[in-house]
Amino acid sequence: MKNLSSAEIRQMFLDFFQSKGHTIEPSASLIPVNDPTLLWVNSGVATLKKYFDGSVIPKNPRITNAQKCIRTNDIENVGRTARHQTFFEMLGNFSVGDYFKKEVIPWALEFLTGEEWLDMDIDKLYITTYPKDTETQKLWQEAGVDPSHIYKVEDNFWDIGEGPCGPDSEIFFDRGQSFNNLSEDDPESYPGGENERYLEVWNIVFSELNHLPSGKYVEQPHKNIDTGMGLERLVSVIQGTKTNFETDLFKPIIDQVEKLSDGRKYDTSDADDISFKIIADHVRTVSFAVGDGALPSNEGRGYVIRRLIRRAVLNGKKLGIDGPFLYKLVPIVGSIMESYYPEVSQQQEFIAKSIQQEEKRFSDTLNDGLELLNGVIADLHKKNEKVIDGESAFKLYDTYGFPLELTVEYAHDENLNVDEDGFKENMELQRERARKARGDLQSMGMQDETLMEIKTDSEFVGYDQDEVTATLKDIIVNDEIVDTATSVTGKAQLIFDKTPFYAEMGGQVADIGNIYDQNNNQVAEVLDVQHAPNGQNIHLVNVVSELDVNQKYVLKIDTDFREKVRHNHTATHLLDQALRDVVGPRTHQAGSLVEPGYLRFDFNSNEGLTDGQISQLEKIVNEKIWASIPVVTEVLPIEEAKKKKGAIAMFSEKYGDVVRVVEVDDYSTEFCGGTHARNTSELGLFKITSESAVGSGIRRIDAVTGEEAFEYLNDNLKLLESSATNMKVNQLKEVPNRAAQLVEEIKQLKRDNQNLKVQLTAQKSNEVFDNVEDINGLKVIATVIAADDMSTLRQLADKWKSENSSDILVLGAGSDGKANLVVAVGKDAQAKGLKAGDLIKQISSEIKGGGGGRPDMAQAGGKDPAGLTKALQKAKDIIKNS
User: Fold this and answer.
1) Positions in the chain short of pLDDT 50
2) Residue 569 annotated as binding?
């Protein structure tokens, strides 16, 4: 077996299948494109679903890739096992209705054992197959595998619900008994068993059946091959490491963590190795995820990133690392992966900054978690109970990043226990939800054999023509090809030999319009246009009158609709470049929608645009409009377009060998198949109507052009005129000054109000501070006062401290269903063991609340003002018994 680096193994795999006629598909973003069923790209086939479900026919049915993936369903196992990772690479080769078992099995063996390739010992390979799949068993033997190395396992059937499925065959490498964690005669010590000796390196799925909603299995019209080989596992085998974490994919990260720690060393026999592994895994995941546009937040992908960062930080603390450190590991991740994934190194500064910011935020979140925990503890003390329930412990873990052991530690300080079994039950419920979600979300649509079989030539001529006479070639009604459609038919799908109707693509909506017969009678209304699997524009229509195949019809688009769409599409190109100029070159499009009435543009950023930046964007785009720049389109070979034109690839698009390039002077040059204005002057006017966050690290701009921009500005002018009337100013230009005056007047009224409160507080202090009790040798002031908020209580506490009015102060106030408490403890009382923070925790349960603070000052809020008297009495009792 050859001694190879991870980069060499990855490239060797791709080179092998390229030599077998496969097209190398570049690794897609971890953020799924046009696939709402997935949170992350989680497998090599995830980005190829459109080919396997038949919605798109690939140019080459043989595809290979090295795809970066994220899975977090078993996050708690990371670091505790040899193989679990949240980020991993999947090597795969795929056949879409082309080769099948008799080709792929010998190829797999050739790559693994061939002298030119990995050069593994064939005697160390074991195969598992589906028991009924005798053909596969025979093919492995014919390829040279010893029959005693071929196992029949019932689980070797790939089926994730409705859609493609079929038997699969797994390849295991025997690393020898020295790697095993079981005795040789253990029932699990076999290929496919739960052991460390036989390591699965490849899974080949023979996707030959469709799982119908009824539960029945039927043969697919086109049989496919879907394989998956985990790069990290394969590298572990070739580099002879005990786990994936000692390979060159992880070890440089672990080495750096050792340097950052307080002298700890990575040792697989030591408990600390778990923390090293978690940090190494998680920093790879967040580096790639942030690089692809996912930023920490409270939901979706952002929540996953936030949780991973916090988990890594907590494990850093276990290794004696204080303060932000994870961001320092980003350059190492970049250097390890640079040969195939240069994007991490290219975005190193941005990725590191994003991670560092989240590390700093985590300290605040820890405090929020402590507040929740203190509230739970206070309730238990009130009820005289001794166990923190599993649901609360899990919430602390899942929402605030508290590991169970941290909650246990705090509980023990309060003489409480934690329901660890309940915690595990909640953890298992979450896993079950994740498993069900995976089963539902990963399923792939079934192939539409009718549309897949239609290979009629159809030409889009809508760049230059709004109306064309064309021959109707195919009519599809209820998924059947028919010769005639009538008004009784209702909806139908039509394919013509040519069409001016644009099919929805790249964020631009489809054209609408009508179809007429040769006598100019309307026969159909075009509602939508999409791409058929073989690339034709397929028209969804409402049939008005009879339509027959092989007859000629006049196709007319709605030109007003098209013109507005063209203008807005050109505006998105100008806005795209303007964002790079104003925000920074790293800014890129994360989605778009081009409608006739408005445009929507999503871009990556973890910060909102300032008013000044929005003004800059509008100024730049409008200056290009007023400059009356011709919009030029040109069809070029893709490499020429990249090199000579410097064209930018729009988000989510796949491009062929020849591309259409849209240029606006030397300002904007992009690949684009959409329709555009002929000159920027046609746009008339550009105005941004809103800017907001729409997801983890994604911002959205809504904007309008032309007539809609004029109407937007006119509506806002009317609002300004109405405001001027209400403010009683004569000219619109006076509105800002008058508004500023009103704001200042309001501020002054608030200051006057606050001064009155201070005076009232001073008056109250005389009443409050005169009421002193002697309890257990300490002077105590404990009373309920009339106050609207906590600030009055704090002001009184500050005055009490300056005047040294007593040893202990306990104040309560309640209004509108809310209760507030403040406790202040002087030095003499503290010397006797009384602390404000402890006292507030014990008495706040009476107002159904919680709180905390320092030994000298603490506060609490609650929901039950009626409990204030009891809270004060409880404070007196505690002081009396101290």
Assistant:
1) 437-445, 651-653
2) yes
